[in-house]
C-alpha cells in the first residue's frame, strides 16, 4: 500500500487537455457512483430495520428496541464488508505523494500547469491506511455526527420535554444532570486511572494513558441515552414522575457531558510537561465549561424567544407552510449561530428546543404544531437509527480498534459504580428536601436505565488519534452494545420486578373535571424553585411571548399600564376568564392564578396539609396522588408506538379499577 | 494571489507533534466556524424571504412570487458580499503548491512524515482564483443541486401530479414534454448557432462556441419551471385542464431536458476533430438518451411499486412513524440506486414520485398521507427558495461571468421563438386528435407560462469550464430572472387578459352526487390512450398494488382464480360493491367499471354523443363540461397558499352563480 512516487519539481508538460478533462470527469463520476452505492447500504439497513421492527411490534416482541436491532443489522453488514467483500484500495488514487512542510486546509496542486484545489480530509496514520477500499468508504467523518445527526435528535428531545412533570421535578433533574454527571465523570475517571495504573504495573499498556484521558473517558460515558428505555416507558405508560426524572436527566446530561468533555480537552497546562496538575489550567477549563455552557444556553434560548416573538407579532399561522419552514429554519440557525460563535451547537439546539416547546409552540397553528412535531420526530427517528446501525457497522469496519480485556472489565465496573455513585447519594440528598420522595424502586430503575447511546458514541469517535483514545473508543462501543441490548431489553422485566405501576391510560381519567384535579394537584406543589419560576413565567413571559396566558395588563403593576397594553395581544384579553393556555390544565387552577397575579412571592403554601405519601407503592394510599400525575400525562407527548401491553401486575390494575367509579363521579 | 512556494522533496523534519496537532485542530475549527457562518447567511436569507412573503400574502400583493423575492434578496446579499465585504484570501491556506503529473481524487501529502489525506475539490483556473475569500466560500459545488436540492423538488412535483386531469390529458402532456422539448431544443440550438456564426463574423466572440454547445444551450433553456405560475394557478383556481397541461408538461420536460442535455454532452465523435457531424456518435447519443431515460424511468417505477407492495403486504399503517420513514427512505433510495447504476437520479425520483402517488399513497394511513405530503412540501419549499436565492446571489458572486449583449439578445429571441415553435404547432396537431380542444387562449397562456427556473439554472451551473459555457450560464441567469419576474409577475394580468376562468371553488360543487358527475364526465373521455391505460391500471395494477380497486377475483379471467384469491387482500373484497378507491370519484362510475371488467378493449365508446364544445370560452355553452372538470379539482392537490383573490372576471363568476341551483338539485 501507499507506494510513494516522489514526483517533484518536474516541468509542466502540455498534454491533451480534452482527453484529460474526460478522464477527470470519468473519475469524478465513478467516485460519485461509489458514494451513492455506499449511502445506499445505510438506507437499505434502515429500511430493513424498519421492516423488522414493524414485525416485532406487530407480534409484540418487546425484548429488542429498534436501536438495538439497528445495531445488530449494522454488525452483520460490518462482518460482510470486513470479511466478505474485498475491494483493494485503488492504488492510482493515492500514489501521488508530495512533500510540503505544513498541512493547510486547502492545497493547490499544479498538474501540468493546471491548478487543482484539494481540501484537507484528515491525517492518515501509517498503520491506519487500509487496504480495503470498501471499509474506508463506509467510514464517515466523525463531525457528521455533531453537525448533521445529533442536532435533530437533541432538538427533538428538547422539543418533547414540555411536560408538567419536567418543571415540577426541575430541581431534582438539574441536580442529577449537573452534579450527577460531574460526580459520575470524576468517579469513573478516578477508577479508570486506578485501573490504568494497575495495567501499567502489569505491563498491559502499549501506549500512554494520562489522567486527563481517564477524565475524558468518564465524561463521555456519563452521557446517558433516553431512547430505548423511554420508548418502552411510553408504551407501558409508566409512572410519570419517574419518566420525567429519567427523561429530563438523560436529555440534560448529554449537554453537560458534551461541554464537560470539551473542557477536559481544553485543559492544557503551560510548558512542556502537559500532563501535570496546574491550578490555572484547571480554572481555565472550569471557565471554558461555564462559558461554553452558558453561551450555548443563552443562544438557544434567545433564538427560541425570537421565533416566539416572530410568530407572536405576525399572523404567520394563516400560512402553515411558511410557519413550519420558519420554525425549522430558526431552529437550524440556532445550531449554526452557536457553531459560528464558537459555542456548542448541540447544546444550543437543546435549549432552543425547550424554549420553542414552551413558548413558540403555543403560537403555532394546530396544523403547524402537528407538522413540526412530526417532522422532528421523523428526523430524530432516522438520525437515531442511522447512528445505531453505524455503531454496529463500525465494530468491524473501524481500522484501529484496541480491545484490552483488563481495561474493558475495569470500564464496565467503573461505569456501573459511577452510575450508582451518581443516583443513590444524590437521591438521598434530594429526598431530604423533596416532599414527593424518590422511592427506592425508582432509584433502582434509574440506576438500571442508564444506557449509553448516540452521544457517548459520537464523543468517543470524534477523536481516535491516540492509543488511549482508540482503546476508549473500542471499550465505549462495547459498553453501548451491552447497555442497549441487556439493560434496554430488560426494561420490562425490571419494571415488573421493581413493581412500578404501568398501563395507566391517561384517556381513561379525562372525565374528571380539570379544575378538581388542578386544585388537588396544586396542593402537592412543594418545589419552591418550580413555584417561583412558574409564577414569573406565567405572569410575564407567557403573556409577552405567546397568545396564551393572562393579559399583561392584569399581571403587571398598574404603573406599567401603557406598556402592558401595548404588549398584549387581543387574544390575550379574551383569555382573561378561563385560561386557554396549553399548560393551564396542568399546573394551577384559575382561582389560584388570580390570587397570585402581581405577586411573585409564594403566597399559597400548600405544605403540611397533604403529606401522606405512599412509601412503598401501596395501591390504596397512592390512588389520589397518582391519579393527578397520570392525568397530566400524555398531553404534549409524541405517541409513536401504537401497541400496548398490559403486564400482569397485581397492584396496579386493581387500583385503577377501584378508582374508576370515583373518577366518573 | 496564488504565491507559489515550491517546497519540494525536502527531507522530513521532526517537529513538536503536539503543537502541530493543536494548530491543525485550530485550523479545522476555524474553517468549521466559517462554514457555519456562510450557511447561516442562506438560512437568514430564507427566513427573510419567508417573512416578507408572508407580508405580501397578508396584504395580498400578488405581483411577486416567493421565488422571485428570494432572488431579489439573493441579489442584494450578492452585491453586499461583492462590494461591501472584502475578506482577503487567506494566503497561508493556499501557499502550498506541489507538482505532480496527475490529479487523483485523493492525494496523500507527506508533512514531516505525517500523512494527510486531501480530496479533490475541483480545478481552479488561473483567472478564476478569487482574491475575495468570502465569494469563494459562498460558492457551492454545483453537484449539490443535483444531489441534494433538486431531488426533493422533483419528487414533490411527481408526488403531487396524481390528478385525474393529468391522466386524461396524458397524450397531450407527453407530446408537449417529449416532442415539444426536443423541438424547442433543436430550434433554439439552430437559432443560437446562427447567432454565434453572426457574432463570429462580427468578431464579437472571444472563444470557441460549437454547434453542440448551442444544442446544449437549447436543451437547458427548454426545461420550464412550473413553480411560480402554478402557485398562482392554485391560488386563483384556474381551469383544471390548463393546470394539468402546464403542470404535466413542466414536470416531465425537466426530466427530458436533463437527459437530453447529458446525451448532447455524450456526443463525442471519434478522432481529433471532435466537433464535426458523425452518424455513429449521433446514434450513440440517441441511444444514451433512450437508455438513460428508460433506465431511470424503470428504476423509479420499480422502487415505487416495491414500496407499494411493502405497504400492501405489511400492516405498517398501524405505525405511522415507521410508515413515513419507510416511504421517505424508499424514495431516497430510488435516487441513490439510479445514481449508483449510472442513470439519472432526478428523473428516477420523478417517476418514483408519480408511482408513489398513484399506488403507495392509497395504502398509507391517513396520517402518513398527510405527513408525507407535508414533509415533501416543506423540503420542496426550502430547496426551491434556497436555489432561487442562490441564483440571485450568484449573479454577483460568480467569478467568471461572460455577458455578451448580442448573445443575450439572441438568446432571449430564441427562447421566445423556441417556446412558440413548441406550443403552437404541437397544439394544432394535438387539436386534430383531441375532442376537448386546446383553445387559443390556453395556448397563449402556455406560451406565456414557460418560465425557466431551478432545473435550467442547475444544468447551466453544472459545468462552467469553457468560455461558451460561461457565456451560457450568465445568459441563462438573465433569462431566469426575466421570466420569473416578468412572466411570473404578470400571470394574473395574463389570465385576466386571456379571459381564462378563475376563482372556481371545488368545494362549492361537491354537493352534486359523484355518480352523476362521473357518468357525465365519462362521456367526455375520448383519449383512447387514457382509456386503455385506465382499464389496465384499474383492473390489474390497482388491485395488486393497493388496498383499493375491485378484487382481482372479479377482474382476472376465471382460469386465474387461485392466483387472484391469493393476491387479493381482505379489504379488496369489501370493495366489491361501491368503490372506495381514491380515484373512483374521478374517472368512471361503478356501472361502467362492471361493464368493462375482464375486457381491456374499449367497449363503451363515447364519441359523437357529446361534441358541442365551446370554442371561445363562452359562459353559457361551457357550463356543464366545465363543471365536471372543476369537480375533480383539488382532491389530491397540495393546498399551499391560503388566500384567494376573486378577480373581477365578467364571464366566469355569473356562470357559476347560474349553475348553483342546478347543482344543488
TrEMBL record, chains A, B:
NCBIfam families: b_cpa1. Belongs to the monovalent cation:proton antiporter 1 (CPA1) transporter (TC 2.A.36) family. It is found in: Cell membrane; Recycling endosome membrane. InterPro entries: Cation/H_exchanger_CPA1 (IPR018422), Cation/H_exchanger_TM (IPR006153), NaH_exchanger (IPR004709), NHE-6/7/9 (IPR002090). Keywords: Antiport, Cell membrane, Endosome, Ion transport, Membrane, Sodium, Sodium transport, Transmembrane, Transmembrane helix, Transport. GO terms for biological process: regulation of intracellular pH; sodium ion import across plasma membrane. GO terms for molecular function: potassium:proton antiporter activity; sodium:proton antiporter activity. It is a multi-pass membrane protein. It comes from the Eukaryota. The lineage of its organism: Eukaryota, Metazoa, Chordata, Craniata, Vertebrata. The chain crosses the membrane at residues 39-56, 68-85, 144-161, 173-199, 288-313, 325-354, 375-396, 402-421, 442-461, 467-491. It comes from Gouania willdenowi. GO terms for cellular component: plasma membrane; recycling endosome membrane. Residues 49-496 form the Cation/H+ exchanger transmembrane domain. This is Sodium/hydrogen exchanger.
Amino acid at each position: 500500500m501507499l507506494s510513494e512516487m516522489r514526483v517533484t519539481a518536474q516541468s509542466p508538460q502540455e498534454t491533451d487537455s480534452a482527453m484529460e478533462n474526460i478522464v477527470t470527469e470519468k473519475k469524478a463520476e465513478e467516485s460519485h457512483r461509489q458514494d451513492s452505492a455506499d449511502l445506499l447500504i445505510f438506507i437499505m439497513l434502515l429500511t430493513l430495520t424498519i421492516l423488522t421492527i414493524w414485525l416485532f411490534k406487530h407480534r409484540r416482541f418487546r425484548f429488542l428496541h429498534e436501536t438495538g436491532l439497528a445495531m445488530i443489522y449494522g454488525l452483520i453488514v460490518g462482518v460482510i464488508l470486513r470479511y466478505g467483500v474485498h475491494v483493494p484500495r485503488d492504488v492510482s488514487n493515492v500514489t501521488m505523494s508530495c512533500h510540503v512542510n505544513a498541512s493547510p486546509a486547502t492545497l493547490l496542486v499544479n498538474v501540468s500547469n493546471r491548478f487543482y484545489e484539494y481540501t484537507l480530509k484528515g491525517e492518515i496514520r501509517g498503520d491506519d491506511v487500509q487496504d480495503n477500499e470498501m471499509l474506508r468508504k463506509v467510514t464517515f467523518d466523525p463531525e457528521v455526527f455533531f453537525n448533521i445527526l445529533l442536532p435533530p435528535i437533541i432538538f427533538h428531545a428538547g422539543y418533547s420535554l414540555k411536560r408538567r412533570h419536567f418543571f415540577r421535578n426541575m430541581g431534582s433533574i438539574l441536580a442529577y444532570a449537573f452534579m450527577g454527571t460531574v460526580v459520575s465523570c470524576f468517579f469513573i475517571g478516578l477508577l479508570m486511572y486506578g485501573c490504568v495504573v494497575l495495567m501499567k504495573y502489569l505491563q498491559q499498556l502499549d501506549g500512554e494513558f494520562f489522567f486527563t484521558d481517564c477524565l475524558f473517558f468518564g465524561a463521555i460515558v456519563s452521557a446517558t441515552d433516553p431512547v430505548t428505555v423511554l420508548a418502552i416507558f411510553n408504551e407501558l405508560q409508566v409512572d410519570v414522575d419517574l419518566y420525567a426524572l429519567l427523561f429530563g436527566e438523560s436529555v440534560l446530561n448529554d449537554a453537560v457531558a458534551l461541554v464537560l468533555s470539551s473542557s477536559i480537552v481544553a485543559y492544557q497546562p503551560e510548558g512542556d510537561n502537559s500532563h501535570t496538575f496546574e491550578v490555572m489550567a484547571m480554572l481555565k477549563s472550569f471557565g471554558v465549561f461555564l462559558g461554553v455552557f452558558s453561551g450555548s444556553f443563552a443562544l438557544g434560548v434567545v433564538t427560541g424567544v425570537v421565533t416566539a416573538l416572530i410568530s407572536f407579532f405576525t399572523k404567520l399561522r394563516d400560512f402553515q407552510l411558511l410557519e413550519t419552514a420558519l420554525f425549522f429554519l430558526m431552529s437550524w440557525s440556532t445550531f449554526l449561530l452557536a457553531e459560528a460563535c464558537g459555542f456548542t451547537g448541540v447544546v444550543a439546539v437543546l435549549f432552543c428546543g425547550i424554549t420553542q416547546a414552551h413558548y413558540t409552540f403555543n403560537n403555532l397553528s394546530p396544523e403547524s404544531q402537528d407538522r413540526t412535531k412530526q417532522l422532528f420526530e421523523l428526523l430524530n427517528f432516522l438520525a437515531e437509527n442511522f447512528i445505531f446501525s453505524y455503531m454496529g457497522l463500525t465494530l468491524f469496519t473501524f481500522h484501529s480498534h484496541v480491545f484490552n480485556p483488563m481495561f474493558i472489565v475495569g470500564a464496565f465496573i467503573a461505569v456501573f459504580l459511577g452510575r450508582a455513585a451518581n443516583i443513590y447519594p444524590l437521591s438521598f440528598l434530594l429526598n431530604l428536601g423533596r416532599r414527593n420522595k424518590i422511592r427506592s424502586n425508582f432509584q433502582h430503575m434509574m440506576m438500571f436505565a442508564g444506557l449509553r447511546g448516540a452521544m457517548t458514541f459520537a464523543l468517543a469517535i470524534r477523536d481516535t488519534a491516540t492509543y488511549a483514545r482508540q482503546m476508549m473508543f473500542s471499550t465505549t462501543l462495547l459498553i453501548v452494545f451491552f447497555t442497549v441490548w441487556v439493560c434496554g431489553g430488560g426494561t420490562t422485566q425490571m419494571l415488573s420486578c421493581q413493581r412500578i405501576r404501568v398501563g395507566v391510560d391517561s384517556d381513561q381519567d379525562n372525565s374528571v373535571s380539570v379544575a378538581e384535579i388542578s386544585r388537588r394537584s396544586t396542593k402537592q406543589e412543594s418545589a419552591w424553585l418550580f413555584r417561583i419560576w412558574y409564577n414569573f413565567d406565567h405572569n410575564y413571559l407567557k403573556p409577552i411571548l405567546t397568545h396564551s396566558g393572562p393579559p399583561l395588563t392584569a399581571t403587571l403593576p398598574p404603573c406599567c399600564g401603557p406598556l402592558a397594553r401595548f404588549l398584549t395581544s387581543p387574544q390575550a384579553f379574551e383569555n382573561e376568564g378561563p385560561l386557554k393556555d396549553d399548560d393551564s390544565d396542568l399546573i394551577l387552577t384559575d382561582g389560584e392564578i388570580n390570587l397570585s397575579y402581581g405577586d411573585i412571592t409564594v403566597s399559597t403554601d400548600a405544605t403540611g396539609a397533604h403529606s401522606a405519601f405512599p412509601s412503598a407503592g401501596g395501591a390504596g394510599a397512592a390512588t389520589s396522588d397518582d391519579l393527578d400525575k397520570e392525568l397530566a400525562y400524555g398531553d404534549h407527548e409524541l405517541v409513536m408506538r401504537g401497541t400496548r401491553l398490559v403486564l400482569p401486575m397485581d397492584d396496579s390494575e386493581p387500583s385503577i379499577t377501584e378508582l374508576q367509579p370515583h373518577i366518573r363521579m
